[in-house]
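About this split. The held-out portion is used to measure sequence recovery: a designer receives only the structure tokens and must propose an amino acid at every position. Recovery is the fraction of positions where the proposal matches the reference. Here is one held-out target exactly as it appears in the evaluation file.
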């Protein structure tokens, strides 16, 4: 949250928070007791008006939703701006002295302002006159509605021009606004010399200064100008489209500053010129301490110049000043443009902490560059323990002496300021910059970047000694430097957590830790602290090298490697940065922009890493690479954006840091992985850790060393690591194998499928389809250029990979018939129990894949039913009630090879049509008091995880109920099936609480467009009710759906309860083929007494059976064992067959409702229709179809079928009777 004071107002801005409908803002004047409250704020900003002038207000914000008001944010504060309060500008050597308020200053003859207007200035009658900026009156000012007024884009008439009464030698200019607004960073000074020629002053600087509650600007001329006519232009880069100037002051040149600065021989101000002695310094000090006799003021730069003289005395008496930082030009963003790694920073620590508002002098040196020249350096200010959006701000530096004032980056009521850094923005490895800071407070820095051996050990020893001494004195340093230093930005009571002095930076080859010094020491413990520090830093860099190798990044290549390879695949020039930061709502750690944020309590853990020891193949022996959270956040930063899936793919690195090549050391459960890949569902797994299994399985399927193995060259890395190839091809798709190269777009899934197939050089369509991904036509075509992956890699786990690495293909039974028997036994609930017997040794078996085989229109269709690690499996097949199913069982060996297929006999499923909820997810617009929020922590670092109570409605538990309400609209629940299903009924159970009354049920295939299938009022019977979907005419209909939405109509704002929601597919229709109902009709059969033409002739071949259904909407088709329709042929070769369905009479109402009736069906061929007994197939089976509209056959679908029934070799005579 950030607060900005305005004129009698404050503007408050804050960030987004989850599950928040509106915000409340609380504010009060500092020192008062009661907050005032503003409610119902919809956006993320609010202006509070009607406040006092020059008064500090403190503010906090809360979020609200249906459940009430959340906790408050941190308290932030700022002062309102004083309305037209005069600024105390310097008067030291002032030229245009005041003649009184509202009167033209002395020595000013005229003034003008081109392209601007004067406001409230009695002195200015002309349209361009600007005398009001020289009247010592802050109610008169010049105003231009633009961000620039001749500062950034100078020219004649752009800015304020003034003519003086004589030629003066001017060295400084001061200006102020009527009210403080923005920050002028651009300045241009033009003047007319004594010959009347227009000139532009060179090396002009502008800096913001503060006087009491007001700010003003000091413009300094490196070299004085002699003129009687001068033009001043300013501009700002803050986005404010207005420039205002109320007062301008001109000052006569005083050589004192240049003479003091001239004591030094270099731009870093660490070497005195020859000839400088004590007398020279004493004389300058005497002049510095002499006030201007006209006004009694000392030099406006008195404090800074006094510090320069003190430094000169130190240099005169000692060997030199410390604190010089050599800038490493290799740490630059310019070198990382092609490697696609985020989260990197080029900030190099200066070891100085500075408070907001503090004035600093930054000296920059570079051999061969002139003083005042532009550089490729930026000074970066940071805020200690900052919020993520208020971490840093930078300013460009020039060669020589740079005067800067530390900006305030946040407005919370805590110490404001933080560590300083230098940032190199160039791309020249031969650049040689050095930097020194005068001001601020030094703190310990350990820089091990590209340092090894004894020098590394010595730096660690020195750092630990310095760290101990520094942390011991932190409290007293705060008292003297901060609380008693006169800067309100840090004038707080000492708190280790918020004191900006409590800082340290530790830099390794690949990481910078920017954390509290005292917490580093705490994390090192009381033992051998030097060893602990050395170990943890080594562990950090080794872990990052492991991660980078899995991204295909290294600085080691085989001899002769081309630049095309190295420019895309080198290690980052910059490093990652873990920083001590304020967490946003619910977070334990986070990754954002150029840093990973951690809190106070997480810092000691960074000091407890231990280098991992592994054998030559990378098999773990001992050591540890930190916790899950740090690797998780680093993963966010270094994930390749082509396929990054937040909270999933970043966890690949967390697993990599912790997995020890067995199933117990990965975060996810393989049983849930196997459930996902056999579910047939489209889309991601509902659990992010289960979804992580997809990426880990690709690593397991193709990498053949243990997890901690690292390699010597890029060529070895990409040969051995799957994701090294994936990321290399993502960075440079032209390097991917295949005649067609991958074209990467915005769809991460399509990108991943292409990149992974390229890395495997296999068509991975089956693998990704099993994981619920759907390749588009371009991806499909790309993958098909590679041979198909024949292995069942969706079943691989860590222990299977280890088995293959250690045993090779021994025990593999690819293609062999190792399954000796499978018993499939259905029960009346729709469950089929399978018992599997195999001749393969159990150690070589990964598991068994179970496939359902169903038949429709005579053709077999297969779908995966599941995977079992044991010899038993239960298929919950109630959705296939009255269908015939057989099973194909395949053994999977530890190399992921498939055995020969064993097929069971056919069984017919009993059951109600109840759909299995495995793979379902659910969403709602309701909130519930029983929604659980699991706090963030090491295992869930980014944010708290919500477990909504609505999940209870699909948990198959009638003792758990979801109770909630929706305040903005009617409450609804969406069942997300994650696959297409046939549905015709919904069952609603309410065990306790307030039941839904009026309802509407809708279905959708895409989750966007819904079709209403039922509405009405639930009439509960013993807590449960089932409703069937219809077509609006009371006729039961079946719909294809992937989403089913239940809305409680008219119940907005009311509390409702749902215990369980169940869906049903069509199950009432059934067909049976009578074994003794096949034969030759011994006499004609009239099946319609009212119409004698409705007769089956004598001698017809008939097949008879029973059915349950609606004869108006059912039809029976007979198939042989080859899947061909059974029938004769007429003279033209057209298939001929007849069928009728007979049923008892139904009442009209029953027929409309689609009530199931019981009856018989007859299927026959008449004599002479080309079907003789000897032509009959050996076996036949019946399929029963239903339609939703008997006229159009819309909605035609298979609802039941039979097993194959043998046709008698000699057909018996049959006689039919009855109707």
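Reference sequence for scoring:
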């Amino acid at each position: 949250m950030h607060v900005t004071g305005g004129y009698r107002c404050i503007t408050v801005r804050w960030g987004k928070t989850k599950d928040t409908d509106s915000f409340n803002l609380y504010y009060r004047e500092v020192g008062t007791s009661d907050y005032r409250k503003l409610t119902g704020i919809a956006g993320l900003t609010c202006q509070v008006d009607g406040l006092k002038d020059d008064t500090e207000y403190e503010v906090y914000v809360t979020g609200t939703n249906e459940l009430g008001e959340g906790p408050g944010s941190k308290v932030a504060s700022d002062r309102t701006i004083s309305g037209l309060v005069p600024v105390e500008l310097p008067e030291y050597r002032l030229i245009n002295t005041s003649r009184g308020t509202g009167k033209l200053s002395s020595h000013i003859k005229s003034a003008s302002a081109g392209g601007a207007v004067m406001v409230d200035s009695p002195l200015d009658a002309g349209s361009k006159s600007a005398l009001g900026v020289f009247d010592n009156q802050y109610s008169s000012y010049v105003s231009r509605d633009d961000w620039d007024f001749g500062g950034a884009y100078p020219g004649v008439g752009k800015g304020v021009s003034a003519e003086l009464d004589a030629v003066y030698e001017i060295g400084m200019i001061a200006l102020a606004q009527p009210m403080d607004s923005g920050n002028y960073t651009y300045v241009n000074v033009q003047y007319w010399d004594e010959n009347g020629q227009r000139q532009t002053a060179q090396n002009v600087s502008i800096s913001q200064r503060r006087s009491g509650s007001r700010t003003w600007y000091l413009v300094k001329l490196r070299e004085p100008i002699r003129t009687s006519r001068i033009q001043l232009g300013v501009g700002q880069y803050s986005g404010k489209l207005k420039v205002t100037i109320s007062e301008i002051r001109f000052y006569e040149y005083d050589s004192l500053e240049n003479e003091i600065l001239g004591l030094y021989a270099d731009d870093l101000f660490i070497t005195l010129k020859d000839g400088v002695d004590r007398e020279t310094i004493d004389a300058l000090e005497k002049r510095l301490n002499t006030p201007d006799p006209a006004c009694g003021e000392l030099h406006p730069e008195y404090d800074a110049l006094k510090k320069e003289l003190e430094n000169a005395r130190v240099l005169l008496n000692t060997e030199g000043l410390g604190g010089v930082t050599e800038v490493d030009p290799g740490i630059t963003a310019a070198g990382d443009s092609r490697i696609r790694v985020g989260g990197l920073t080029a900030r190099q620590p200066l070891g100085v902490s500075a408070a907001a508002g503090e004035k600093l002098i930054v000296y920059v040196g570079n051999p061969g560059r002139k003083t005042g020249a532009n550089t490729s350096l930026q000074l970066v200010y940071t805020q200690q323990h900052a919020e993520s959006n208020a971490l840093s701000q930078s300013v460009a530096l020039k060669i020589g002496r740079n005067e800067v004032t530390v900006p305030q980056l946040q407005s919370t009521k805590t110490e404001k300021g933080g560590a300083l850094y230098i940032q190199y923005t160039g791309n020249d490895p031969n650049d040689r910059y050095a930097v020194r800071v005068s001001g601020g407070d030094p703190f310990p820095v350990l820089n091990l970047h590209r340092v090894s051996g004894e020098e590394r050990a010595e730096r660690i020893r020195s750092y630990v000694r310095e760290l101990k001494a520094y942390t011991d004195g932190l409290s007293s340093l705060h008292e003297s430097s901060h609380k008693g230093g006169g800067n309100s930005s840090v004038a707080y009571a000492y708190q280790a957590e918020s004191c900006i002095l409590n800082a340290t930076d530790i830099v390794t080859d690949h990481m910078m830790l920017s954390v509290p010094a005292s917490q580093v020491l705490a994390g090192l413990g009381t033992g051998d602290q030097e060893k602990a520090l050395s170990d943890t830093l080594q562990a950090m860099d080794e872990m990052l090298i492991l991660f980078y190798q899995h991204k295909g990044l290294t600085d080691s290549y085989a001899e002769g490697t081309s630049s095309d390879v190295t420019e895309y695949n080198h290690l980052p020039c910059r490093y990652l940065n873990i920083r001590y930061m304020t967490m946003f709502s619910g977070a334990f750690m986070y990754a954002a922009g150029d840093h990973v944020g951690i809190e106070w309590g997480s810092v000691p853990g960074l000091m407890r890493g231990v280098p991992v020891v592994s054998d030559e193949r990378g098999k773990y022996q001992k050591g540890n690479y930190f916790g899950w959270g740090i690797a998780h956040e680093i993963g966010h930063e270094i994930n390749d954006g082509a396929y990054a899936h937040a909270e999933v793919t970043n966890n690949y690195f967390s697993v990599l840091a912790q997995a020890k090549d067995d199933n117990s050391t990965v975060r996810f459960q393989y049983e849930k992985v196997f459930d996902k890949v056999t579910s047939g569902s489209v889309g991601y797994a509902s659990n992010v850790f289960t979804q992580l299994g997809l990426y880990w399985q690709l690593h397991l399927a193709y990498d053949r060393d243990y997890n901690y193995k690292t390699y010597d060259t890029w060529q070895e890395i990409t040969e051995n690591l799957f994701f090294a190839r994936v990321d290399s091809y993502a960075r440079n798709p032209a390097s991917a194998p295949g005649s067609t190269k991958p074209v990467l777009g915005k769809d991460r899934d399509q990108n991943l499928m292409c990149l992974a197939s390229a890395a495997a050089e296999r068509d991975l369509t089956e693998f990704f389809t099993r994981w619920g991904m759907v390749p588009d036509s371009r991806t499909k075509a790309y993958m098909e250029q590679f041979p198909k992956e024949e292995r069942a890699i969706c079943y691989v786990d860590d222990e299977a990979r280890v088995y293959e690495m250690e045993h090779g293909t021994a025990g593999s039974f690819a293609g062999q018939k190792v399954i000796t028997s499978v018993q499939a036994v259905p029960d009346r609930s729709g469950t089929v129990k399978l018992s599997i017997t195999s001749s393969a040794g159990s150690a070589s078996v990964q598991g068994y894949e179970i496939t359902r085989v169903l038949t429709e229109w005579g053709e077999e269709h297969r779908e995966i039913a599941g995977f079992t690690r044991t010899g038993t499996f239960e298929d919950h097949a109630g959705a296939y009630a009255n269908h015939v199913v057989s099973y194909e069982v395949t053994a999977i060996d530890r190399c992921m090879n498939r055995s020969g297929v064993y097929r069971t006999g056919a069984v017919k499923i009993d059951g109600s049509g109840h759909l299995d909820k495995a793979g379902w997810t659910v969403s709602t617009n309701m909130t519930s008091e029983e929604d659980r929020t699991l706090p963030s922590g090491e295992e869930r670092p980014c944010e708290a995880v919500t477990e909504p109570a609505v999940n209870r409605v699909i948990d198959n538990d009638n003792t758990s109920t979801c109770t909630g309400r929706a305040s903005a609209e009617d409450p609804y629940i969406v069942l997300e099936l994650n696959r297409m299903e046939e549905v015709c009924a919904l069952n609603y159970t309410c065990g306790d609480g307030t039941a839904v009354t009026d309802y509407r049920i809708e279905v959708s295939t895409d989750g966007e467009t819904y079709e209403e299938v039922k509405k009405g009022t639930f009439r509960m019977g013993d807590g449960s009710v089932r409703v069937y979907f219809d077509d609006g005419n009371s006729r039961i209909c079946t719909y294809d759906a992937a989403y089913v939405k239940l809305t409680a109509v008219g119940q907005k704002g009311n509390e409702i309860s749902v215990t369980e929601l169940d869906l049903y597919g069509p199950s009432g229709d059934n067909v049976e083929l009578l074994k003794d109902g096949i034969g030759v009709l011994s006499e004609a059969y009239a099946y319609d007494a009212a119409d004698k033409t409705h007769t089956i002739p004598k001698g017809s071949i008939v097949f008879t059976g029973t059915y349950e259904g609606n004869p108006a909407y059912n039809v029976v088709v007979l198939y042989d064992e080859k899947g061909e329709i059974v029938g004769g042929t007429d003279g033209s070769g057209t298939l001929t067959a007849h069928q009728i369905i007979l049923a008892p009479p139904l009442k009209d109402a029953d027929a409309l409702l689609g009530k199931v009736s019981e009856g018989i069906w007859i299927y026959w061929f008449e004599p002479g229709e080309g079907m003789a007994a000897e032509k009959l197939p050996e076996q036949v089976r019946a399929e029963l179809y239903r339609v939703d509209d008997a006229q159009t056959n819309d909605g035609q679908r298979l609802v039941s079928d039979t097993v194959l029934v043998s046709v008698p070799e000699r057909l018996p005579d049959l006689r039919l009777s009855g109707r």
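Annotator remark: Residues 529-550 form the longest helix (22 residues).
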